[in-house]
Amino acid sequence: MSNATSDKPLLIATGVSKHYQMGPSRLDVLKACSLHVKRGEFVAIMGRSGSGKSTLLHILGALDTAQAGKVEFDGQDVFGAGSERRRVRFRRNQFGFVFQFYHLLPELTVLENVLITEMIRTPIAGWLARRGDARKRALAIIDRVGLSARIRHRPNELSGGERQRVALARALVHQPAILLADEPTGNLDRESGAGILDLLLGLHGDGQTIVMVTHDKAVADRADRTLNLVDGRLRDE
Amino acid sequence: MYKLFLTLRYLRKRRIAFFAIGAVTLCVAMVLIVLSVMGGWLEQVMQRSRGLLGDIIVDNHTNSGFPLYDEFITEIEKWPEVVKATPVLYSYGLFQIGKTYNGTVRIVGIRLEEVFEVNAFKASLFYEKFYPGTTRFGDQQQAVLGFDPDAPPVKSPEGDEFMMRELPEPYRSALSHADQVHREQTGQPLTDTDSVPDLVDDSRTHYGQPPIPGLFELAEMRNPPGYEGDTLPGVILGRDLIAERQRDGRYERFIPLGEVVRLTMVPITEVGNVDPTPIKRQFRYADDSRTGIYEIDSQHVYVDFGLMQQLLLMDEGKGVDGDVIPARCSQIQIKTIDGADTEALAQRMEDLYLSYLEDPKRELRPIDRDLIARVQAVTWQRQQAHIIGPVQKEKALMTILFGIISLVAVALVLCILYMIVLQKTRDIGIIKAIGGSSVGVAAVWVLYGLAVGVVGCALGSAFGVWFVSNINEIQDALIAINPAWRVWDMQVYSFDRIPSRVATSDLIGVNAIGVLAATVGSVAAAWRAGRMQPVEALRDE
Ligand SMILES: Nc1ncnc2c1ncn2[C@@H]1O[C@H](COP(=O)(O)OP(=O)(O)O)[C@@H](O)[C@H]1O
Ligand SMILES: [Mg+2]
User: Fold this and answer.
1) Tens digits of per-residue pLDDT, B177-203?
2) In principle, which of A124, B239, B293, B313 could form an S-S bond with B288, CB 3.0–4.6 Å?
């Protein structure tokens, strides 16, 4: 348990609902879910496969929209007016995403896959000035995930665990306020999964706010707090 | 920053993009080649048609011609825009050379010295190039080569001494002068690459040596060079009348210079009637002219203006009742200074000519008034529109045709980019998830199209320019493999070489359109990529 947790909630979701309409049938994935995440907190969201965990995480991370409810980040409404541009800004600056299937860009090397986050944040005119700095930070974070020796490799030359480390480095290089991880260990063997989890715990130890989705009880138990997604509703453990 | 980075990376890593680039390359090269060859052809036709007559042509489109031309010429040569003007006569007649060849020709009466100043006629002459100043309409005999007793003998490489056959003056000095001038200008000796060698006599001509303007005496008759035969006026023949054009563009002349040419003309009266007594005259073949327009070179025979006027009874005379019948010409050719407004000038000239009708001091006969009233002055562009027009149309047609074919390249760019976008759906989701905006992602694909366009155009331009510059060598190489592969048949097109210059404006235009088209081709892909929802894209398996 970390003591870096502050009392002020960084992310507040209230009454978030999401359904998919497929012809005449309607699938209610999320039914008025509410949660808050405090600064420095490590929250785990658990649930069976298909229970809507990814959907919830996407909405929290401004990747997806909800039909009802509200998401507030640091006092700002994520889905307010001019939301598309605002959501892009949130994703670019405040959030870092890690996915179950790594989702690296296959044409890019390890270093480039990490640097791309910085490139997206920097207009072309400013890139030359900031490149050295961005590179330094990218190398530092790659070192932290233990892949310094592999920066010139392409994703298909790496193991699953190594790929997920690159994904983690990519999600963290711009120092996001929240790291959103969607079953980061779900596709890995026990050992690699443990490695990733250790990294997450280490980051949490440094004060990183983390929201992690998992269906593995053992993984969830390492978090500060676990929420259960059952029948579209969130329940505390 | 990522847009440019990803664009370049995708360009290098996606092999399929090379097909798009290849398509653009081929289309750009193709259109460039078509534009250059057709444009070059058009330019040559324009230049030749301009050189044919003059910048402005005054004509009354009757066979009877029109009077007062000398007065008119004196008047307009005072104008600062007019460089030179000269009258011309046209008539039809029969042409006979030797015993065998004859045919109907168009006889053109010109003042040679003046025509040299007005249009490009001088450049069209063959012997005049090697023997400047020798082509003339004045009375002349046929040149005969011979042995000069005063000249020192020549030594052969084997050590034998022999006498060279020499040309009579002024041919000898004229050739050495022309050769000297040519060497000064180009560093090369003056050679004849236009003729097929060994035409009339095996010992006469060798390929690459200047042509011999005259007859050989028999070797055993050791006469000095000179002239023989009747003294007759000169005539210049259209080249295709006395020489045969080969497929490689060279001419085989089967008549030596100075041969007797018989012309039969029929005078045409002021009222357009044909005089029933034809006029027969002998001339000597003084040179041949090739304008590059086959209809002219196979039909025109040029004689002295004054002589022809007399023969056709178109010179000044006295009528039965004692009144003066003015001299007539068929046409006046005028050279203007560069950059003159020829349209306005032509109008002024026509007005001047028609003003002669209003002049009360002139006592013009009704028939003269009628001929003058028909006088028109037109620019060379209008006069030659029937030659230029079809080529212009053909150029436009070909360009449109190949432009339409180039749409295939645009479609291909569109398909390939769209395909890459579909393949890259997940990547697009990732880029959006880590902060790429819709506009940014769309921009990647527009940039991609732009890059395909730029690379394709650069390669296409390089290839097109190379191809056009070497088009004649390429054809030569093809012919060497198989003679049937001659695309540019010089018997058909009257130009020796395929036009081989790319106009800068064509280059810029084609490239601009090429880049634009490839970019437009990417819009559908960009639109699709931009609108892709990140979650949908990420769920894509
Ligand atoms: N675009 C969609 N259209 C229809 N149903 C969807 C769509 N996306 C997700 N779902 C459904 O929503 C439910 C929740 O999906 P998801 O959030 O991925 O679950 P989890 O991550 O908990 O496994 C699933 O039943 C899934 O089939
Ligand atoms: Mg999921």
Assistant:
1) 999 999 999 888 888 877 776 554 544
2) B239
How far is ligand 1, taken at its centre, from the CA of residue A223, in Å? 25
Burial of B336 (0-12, 13-18, 19+ CB in 10 A): buried
Is A88 in contact with B9 (Cβ distance < 8 A)? no
The shortest C-alpha distance from A187 to chain B (Å) reads 15
Q: Is the dihedral of CA B93, B94, B98, B101 positive or negative?
A: positive
Least confident of A61-75, B264-278, B336-350: B264-278
- Are A29 and A18 within 8 A, CB to CB? yes
| Separation between Cα atoms, residue A63 and residue B433, nearest integer Å | 6
Please state, rounded to an integer, the average pLDDT across all residues of chain B.
Answer: 84
Domain boundaries, chain B: 2-48+386-538, 144-226
Whether residue A55 has pLDDT greater than 80? yes
* Bridging pattern class, strands B56-59 and B376-379: antiparallel
Q: Which two tokens stand for residue B171?
A: 């041919």
Measured between beta carbons, the chain B residues lying within 8 angstroms of A168 are none
pLDDT at B525 over 60: yes
User: Cβ–Cβ contacts within 10 Å for residue B274, how many?
Assistant: 12
- Kindly tell me if the per-residue pLDDT of B513 is higher than 70: yes
Distance in angstroms (rounded) separating the CA atoms of residues A40 and A210: 7
Please spell the DSSP secondary structure of A196-229, one letter per residue. HHHHHHHHHHTT-EEEEEES-HHHHTTSSEEEEE
Residues within a 6 A CB radius of ligand 1 = A 20, 22, 27, 29, 47, 49-55
Which one of the ligands is nearest to A18 CA? 1
What length does chain B have? Answer: 541
Q: Taking the alpha carbons of B379, B380, B384, B389 in that order, is the dihedral positive or negative?
A: negative
Domains, chain A:
9-236 (3.40.50.300)
| DSSP tag of B232 | E
CA distance A108 to chain B (A): 8
CB-based contacts of B425, cutoff 8 Å, min separation 6: B532, B537, B540
What residue of B is the nearest CA neighbor of A64? B535
C-alpha distances in Å from residue B537, one per residue of B261, B422, B424, B526, B531: 89, 10, 9, 15, 10
Burial tier of A75 (Cβ tally within 10 Å: 0-12, 13-18, 19+): exposed
Q: Looking at the partner chain, which of A58, A64, A170 has a beta carbon nearest the beta carbon of B434?
A: A170
Cα A55 to ligand 1 centre (Å):
7
Q: Is B385 helix (H, G, I), strand (E, B) or coil?
A: helix
Rounded CA gap, B527 and B529, in Å? 6
Interatomic CA distance for residues B313 and B277, integer angstroms: 12
pLDDT at B204 over 60: no
Q: What is the mean pLDDT of residues B382-406?
A: 83
All residues of chain B having their beta carbon less than 8 Å from the beta carbon of residue A107 are: 9-10, 13
What is the pLDDT at residue A4?
A: 47
For residue A2, what pLDDT band results from cuts at 50, 70 and 90? very low
pLDDT of residue A175: 87
User: What string of DSSP letters covers B25-92?
Assistant: HHHHHHHHHHHHHHHHHHHHHHHHHHHHS-SEEEE--STT-EE-HHHHHHHHTTSTTEEEEEEEEEEE
In chain A, what percentage of residues exceed pLDDT 90?
14
Cα angle B485-B487-B488, degrees, rounded to a multiple of 5: 135
Residue range B427-485, pLDDT digits in tens: 888 888 888 888 888 888 888 888 889 999 999 999 999 999 888 888 888 888 877 77
Q: How many of the other CB atoms lie within 10 Å of CB of A156?
A: 8
